[in-house]
Amino acid sequence: MTKHTNLGGTFMLANASLTVNRMGYGAMQLAGPQVWGPPRDPGEAVRVLREAIEAGVNHIDTSDFYGPHVTNQIIKQALHPYRDGLVTVTKVGTRRGDDKSWLPALSRQELIDAVHHNLRNLGVDKLDVVNLRLGEVLRPSEGSIEEPLTVLAELQRQGLIRHLGLSNVTAKQFEEGQKISEIVCVQNFFNIAQRDDDAFVDELATHGVAYVPFFPLGGFTPLQSSGLDAVAASVRATPMQVALAWLLHRAPNILLIPGTSSVKHLRENLQAAALQLSPETIAKLDSIAAASKQ
Ligand SMILES: NC(=O)c1ccc[n+]([C@@H]2O[C@H](COP(=O)([O-])OP(=O)(O)OC[C@H]3O[C@@H](n4cnc5c(N)ncnc54)[C@H](OP(=O)(O)O)[C@@H]3O)[C@@H](O)[C@H]2O)c1
Of all atoms in ligand 1, which is nearest to the CA of residue 213? Predict the structure, then answer.
């Protein structure tokens, strides 16, 4: 494994101590099937994390509701004590039902418990960044976020959280959130084929706030398109690499957290940071995406 010299450049999330490479890693796929229970191959899960870090990744996205608890415990097992400069971003606001469903968990006590579960399972005294996760499964729903965000801001003042972010929110909710506490990142559903947040991405860029797309590769069913395949062949890359490179080209405030449970896919994904797409190639990808929406 080689250390990557190009992980898409860097982005300052909040201050110099919270500067990350734009190519990060999303840990959700490390839990078992349906993000439930232990992984099919626990050794591979540890190898994925260690290889990501050795390659220079310094931004890992996780949550204690992956597994539940499993993903954070694997991160701790694989990487603790953590390297200086590693930024772990977790999220709260959701819980898992016994039937593996994803349910809101936004009461004061649920949020406090979730922060403490993250601290314990990651083995840290303070969480680097906590995203408040709202909305429905795949899309935000309007409504005030004041109550739950105020709880997290209190925990931040108590010293349990360094920085706050939001996930699955609208531009209006971001605006409301900023009045309660500084918001350093927004994590929403966005990829080459899902562009509802186009304007939001640009708006956040003007505020210097990171936009971190979840499902950058399409999620549980990775993106599939003959147009994407053709472009990938033309630039001698894989379709997944093109999808990631497109995001890195899309805006300087986009940070990537592609998820994988495999070292092979991890290597492929990290290489995407060095893939240059010409303006013509980007225009071609945009026209393919636009045509698929019609
Ligand atoms: N805030 C939220 O609501 C929310 C929601 C969903 C996810 N997230 C976060 O976003 C991160 C990324 O999302 P995600 O992992 O669900 O989706 P994703 O990154 O879009 O895609 C993951 C899927 O793509 C496959 N894959 C990865 N690299 C591949 C490659 N090179 N070739 C072929 N297949 C590949 C993975 O399978 P293999 O394991 O076989 O590689 C997995 O099935 C998560 O880890 C999580 O931290 C947040």
Answer: 10
